[in-house]
Design brief:
The chain has 456 residues and is of the alpha/beta class. The protein has one domain: Spore Coat Polysaccharide Biosynthesis Protein SpsA, Chain A. Helix content is 32%, strand content 20%. The protein contains 15 helices and 20 strands. It has a 7-stranded mixed sheet with strand order 4-3-2-9-13-10-18, sandwiched between helices. Strands 1-11-12 form a 3-stranded antiparallel sheet, with no helix packed on it. It has a two-stranded antiparallel sheet with strand order 5-8. Strand 6 and strand 7 form a beta hairpin. Helix 8 packs across helix 12. The relative contact order is 0.15.
Length: 456
């Protein structure tokens, strides 16, 4: 090797096979691989390799108490008060939107960043456009600037930046859109050794949604927020176009509780739905991952027959800016995800494994909740706020998401006094202010006889 200190770091962290591999490469390929390897933190590599070789769930639990939740059925007076508080926070310019978009669309069969995926039932708008326009509409309504932050990763950052530029930032001012990239971490085999994605490249993957704190800090977003006077970060996942990018009601509950971090939940559709649940373990509020619960625990019932752990997390949070900075400097736990990872063998041949051969290491954003002051957990309606796009077909697919989007818009029109047959394709742009005056101007009262309606 040309760098003896790099060789020592590889050897001491159990990566001696990479040293041997480097010696077989031609100069240009060796230089590319050495450049990548030189960017790793080898104290962290040693820690991650030790975690990766551990077997079994990260932190399985035998029993725990369900978390206290603000139910949908809380009083109208409380809802009004919280919405007023949240609206004032938005008007004061202290709330920012933060869209977590580090994933690719590979499970959808889409070659590109998931946020670029076209999901509008009629318009074909991308996930990014829908979130951006929701933020823009709220900013216009209250005459305030709302900054829009996006978490990317090294593999999709350039594509996402180009997408926003090509689309003129979807109406947002470019100086109010800031992208920050999360860290990439090496994956390991069952023996804690690096996996080669190519002869000149170690396989790496994003550090999980828990990497958001570090990304916000390292990317300058937290400093930018401080300069703007932002106090509350509205965190949403890019693959859920149904959720409000900023929800004044949710912001209000968070502010009134003087909370560091608040979360949304909804009632699980069945015991086996793959959602983590909020619970109290040894008096500590946290999210228990689906994979860390036994089937018996998932199916547990109360005396009245209702599901004991009924509330699932939907990865929507409000996070205090100061708290996010603290979490960026805290060693939140790492978790292991066992995956099938294509690799290159010692002869340079690419292998597609039939079984899970690799172990990715990642952090979870909700692992900060036990460290938060006065965390709030608020129930929301699935029909109004949760229709993720994860799979090409079946549950949580583009088809189910578009159906949910149209069903929500039909309900919105019906509440506004418009007769909407169930078989009409409907889409309402986030930029369309759904009030009586605009509906009258659009000539809407009865949609019978139409096959589709798009309002923008």
């Amino acid at each position: 090797m040309t760098d003896t200190s790099l060789a020592r770091n590889l050897e001491r962290t159990g990566q001696g096979h990479i040293v041997e591999h480097l010696s077989k490469l031609e100069p240009a390929a060796r230089e590319r691989l050495e450049r990548q390897l030189a960017g790793f933190d080898y104290d962290l590599v040693a820690r991650l390799a030790e975690i990766a070789v551990q077997d079994g769930p990260d932190r399985s639990v035998d029993d725990f108490e369900p978390a206290p939740v603000l139910p949908l059925s809380r009083s109208a007076e409380r809802v009004r008060a919280a919405r007023r508080t949240g609206t004032e926070a938005v008007k004061s310019g202290t709330v920012a939107a933060f869209v977590v978009a580090g994933g690719q669309g590979s499970r959808l069969g889409y070659d590109g960043p998931k946020g670029c995926y076209s999901i509008g039932p009629i318009s074909g708008k991308s996930l990014f456009q829908i979130h951006a326009e929701k933020t823009l509409a709220l900013a216009r309504r209250h005459g305030v600037t709302i900054p829009f932050y996006v978490m990317t990763n090294r593999t999709n950052d350039a594509a996402i930046r180009s997408f926003f530029e090509q689309n003129d930032y979807f109406g947002l001012e470019s100086e109010n859109v800031l992208l920050c990239s999360q860290r990439m971490l090496p994956a390991f085999d069952k023996n804690g050794r690096f996996i080669l994605a190519a002869p000149d490249r170690v396989f790496v993957s994003p550090d999980g949604h828990g990497g958001a704190y570090h990304a916000l800090l390292a990317g300058g977003a937290l400093d930018d927020m401080a300069r703007r006077g932002i106090e509350h970060i509205s965190y949403v996942q890019v693959d859920n176009p149904l959720v409000p990018t900023i929800d004044p009601l949710f912001i209000g509950e968070h502010v009134q509780a003087e909370s560091d971090m608040s979360s949304k939940v909804l009632e699980k559709r069945d015991p086996m739905e793959k959602l983590g649940v909020f619970g109290c373990v040894d008096g500590e509020l946290r999210v228990i991952e689906y994979s860390d619960m036994s089937d018996d625990l998932k199916r547990a019932r109360r005396h009245d027959g209702s599901l004991k752990y009924r509330y699932g997390s939907i990865a929507v949070h409000v996070i205090g800016r100061r708290f996010a900075r603290r979490m960026a400097e805290v060693n939140l736990p790492f978790h292991v995800a066992r995956k099938r990872i294509p690799y290159v063998n010692t002869d340079g041949e690419r292998i597609e494994p039939e079984k899970r051969n690799g172990r990715k290491v990642e952090r979870f954003v909700f692992d900060a909740i036990p460290l938060a002051r006065n965390p709030v957990v608020m129930e929301v309606s699935r029909a109004d706020e949760f229709a993720p796009v994860k799979n090409a077909e079946g549950d949580d697919s583009p088809a189910t998401c578009r159906d949910a989007m149209m069903a929500k818009d039909r309900r919105r029109l019906a509440r506004a006094g418009v007769n909407v047959p169930d078989d009409i394709a409907v889409e309402i742009s986030p930029l369309f202010d759904l009030n009586t005056e605009h509906l009258a101007a659009a000539g809407l009262s009865d949609l019978s006889g139409r096959d589709r309606i798009y309002l923008e």
